[in-house]
Amino acid sequence: MRNVLVTGAAARLGRAIARELHRDHRVIIHYRSSANAARALVEELNAIRADSAAAVQSTLGNKADCEALASEATAQWGGIDVLVNNASAFHPTPIGSADEAAWDELVGSNLKAPFFLSQALAPSLSRDNGCIVNMADIHAERPMPQHTIYCAAKAGLVMLTKSLALELSPRVRVNAVAPGAILWPEKEDEAVDSDTQAGILARIPMGRTGREADIARTVRFLVSGQDYITGQVLAVDGGRSLNI
């Protein structure tokens, strides 16, 4: 049985991905501060199949953090075969009010951590034809107003996906998933008002937001059995990127 590390896996899309991959993988649930949610998920998964899930905490704030997480994750069951870089900060940074702390947080979580974690896990991933799936965004190519730093970081993650696919081939495949409107932000300061939501929905050809399962099943598609797909970014957005 292969081993998966999913970052930011205690809630929302990360949790859905972890549950989906747990069907036939052992799963490391990475979390930053959501300890209770991470432990509850581990208990849920281990109740389905004993010794099939574990939780590991890390802020992923720097190279040393990424290396420590990689070391702890590989020690759990003797290696990591699949890395899903899902952990991501997201908030607006209007020009004129953005500061260096916002830059460090958004670029750090969306680009720096995926790079250093991928680098640290490359030996383990290479050992048995592993793969990396990065969670990108349709706004990596089409900017979102007032989110310049976030969009730039996700654009960097798309290029990181392609660069790693080239550099780590043929032993490791590297792809990305670019979600559209899947889940509205939960934090009050990131909330999307009803009029804005309606405007976004009106521009989605499929006429609805996506579901967590849409993303989780796409990650499974890229992880399981697709051994000739690498360096690709797959949009899962209901056609939203056709109509931005």
From TrEMBL:
Keywords for the protein's UniProt record, in alphabetical order: Oxidoreductase
Q: Does the keyword Membrane apply?
A: no
Cite a single GO MF annotation: oxidoreductase activity
Record keywords: Cytoplasm included? no
Q: Which PANTHER family match?
A: OXIDOREDUCTASE, SHORT-CHAIN DEHYDROGENASE/REDUCTASE FAMILY (AFU_ORTHOLOGUE AFUA_5G02870), SHORT-CHAIN DEHYDROGENASE_REDUCTASE FAMILY PROTEIN
What family, per the record? Belongs to the short-chain dehydrogenases/reductases (SDR) family.
* Name assigned to this protein: Pteridine reductase
